[in-house]
């Protein structure tokens, strides 16, 4: 995960972290980070397979800023709390209102 100059985060995966970070920092990769230089590596993790890395990327990309900051700090308790709060909010917003109509 990269921290960009506009305080946003960029999440991606690669087979060669050092080369990819260098390419992002030099602006060689078109897209999101090129217009938000400089960037700084703030979190990374190795995975056994490319599939696992891609799954983690997709998961973290969907996280809130607060949850990403907790990940950077490796605050697993806060990540759990934020996940539970998010699940509760999701259930509350997608739940259907039921009425009992006698009959």
Secondary-structure map:
Elements lengths: L1 E2 L5 E2 L6 H9 L14 E2 L8 H12 L3 H8 L3 H19 L9
Antiparallel strand pairs: 1-2, 1-3
Short note summarizing the structure:
By secondary structure, the protein is mainly alpha-helical.
State the main characteristics.
47% helix; single chain; 103 residues; mainly alpha; disordered C terminus; GIY-YIG endonuclease; 3-stranded antiparallel β-sheet; 3 strands
Write structural notes for this entry.
This protein is mostly helical and 103 residues long. It has one domain: GIY-YIG endonuclease, CATH 3.40.1440. The protein is 47% helix and 6% strand. It contains four helices and three strands. The protein has a three-stranded antiparallel beta sheet, with no helix packed on it. Helix 3 runs antiparallel to helix 4. The radius of gyration is 18 Å and the shape is globular. The termini are far apart.
The side-by-side strand order for the widest beta sheet comes to 2-1-3
Integer count of domains: 1
Helix content: 40-55%
- pLDDT averaged residue by residue: 89
**C-alpha-based Rg, rounded:** 18 Å
Shape: globular
**Counting H and I runs of at least 4 residues, what is the number of helices?**
4
Number of strands: 3
- Secondary-structure arrangement, i.e. CATH architecture: 3-Layer(aba) Sandwich
CATH topology: GIY-YIG endonuclease
Runs in which pLDDT lies below 50 for 5 or more consecutive residues are 96-103
In N-to-C order, the SSE pattern is: EEHEHHH
